[in-house]
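May I ask for a protein sequence together with how it folds?
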Amino acid sequence: MKYLALALIAISLWFLPQANTFAGEPKQIAGHWEGAITREGKEWRVCLDISVEGKTLKGTVDLPDYGFYYLPLSIKVEGARVSLSHFLRSSTVSVDGRFDGDRITGTWKGLNLTADFQVKRTSVQPVVFAEEEVRCQSGDATLVGTLVKPNRPGRHPVIVFTHGSGNQTRSRSAYRSMAYMFARRGIAALIYDRRGMGASTGDSRRNLNMPVLADDAVAWVKALQLRDDINPRQIGVSGLSQGGWVSPLAAARSKDVAFVLVISAAGITIGEQDDFVAENLIRAKRKIPEGRLEGVLELVKRVREFARTGRGDPTALEAEIARLRGEPWFEHAGLPKGEIEQYNPQIKEFLSFDPVPVWKKVSVPVLALWGERDTIVPAEKSRAIIERALKEGGNKEYTLKIFPQADHQMYVVREEGAGWDWPRLAPGYQEAMIEWLLARVDVAK
């Protein structure tokens, strides 16, 4: 479980591949390769795309079961020996193998594991995307992003990908991988640096109000409508976690949004979600004696309520906290070690954001997906709230689904004692998004 939790926050560094070398004719290794990384009988699918530019090899790697796509690949070939490497989880993943005609076999090392690697060349041509750095203005911020398109002519449908919470940029592989996954299926994607982050300017505070972030997404929609290579009537918005608040708000604020696709969207206020997360974290640590747990959780809620609304007696709260500081489990209680956070009106506005009125205004097709084992968002409660809001708003075209055993990032949660396995996305999760979208947009042939 600890290993899986670390894997779920996998972040790849978006670096250019190192110089790729080949002692011989580069075309011998070019092509599309498919196979698996295997450990303890468990397979993890892998795909390589290797092409030649002059005498230089260029490559990318896909890990479909992990949800990572188009990671830059470094390639070195000396005789029959092949060395492959790419960045994953801020470290290098490598393959030391042998090239034999239409097969590459060897040893894979990464994620603190060693496994067998085998791929076979197929008749499929390597995937090539058209990529372009783009900019748009949103209020006082200049937003910078990358438009990823299928490498063929036509006016493409496109998804504008909003962000989860935090300082997110295009360099996050989990974020950018979504763009390449959809572009493979003929749907363009716009990924961008959150305002104030990366190359984008503007306010970079984490607790920016939702309308600001939604207006950034709408600004991208309007900018994309002006392009000759984009279908102006098939521009949608998507997001995971906090993006599940931002995306429907963008659709509610703009009639130019054609569809909404959200993952792990909370149907409750930000403050209520924070309480849900805090309680789950405390319970998961299992450090507080059962007889004291409920009292501690109640105190945590009152402390958070004071910071959120100003209601309560800070002197009394700090006295209660002080009485617990000597307990051996205090550091696991989620209580402040110093003074409690003072009431801030701006924080109140942020934490009070309620998505229900927003969802009532969303009239375009909606796909919303959750994981049953999400400890960040109450999945079933959120599904029921959002469905009720959509119905009350008169929306009849929506699909809401909860995936069994999946977490907030839609990875399978393995039970203790279930045996080792690779980190995997919930079965059918990626397919559900692609199939739903392809049924509603026109892909250029």
User: Anything to note?
Assistant: Confidence is low (pLDDT under 50) at residues 1-19. The chain has three domains: 2-122, 129-269+353-438, 279-340. The two ends are 44 Å apart (CA to CA). The first helix runs from residue 2 to 8.
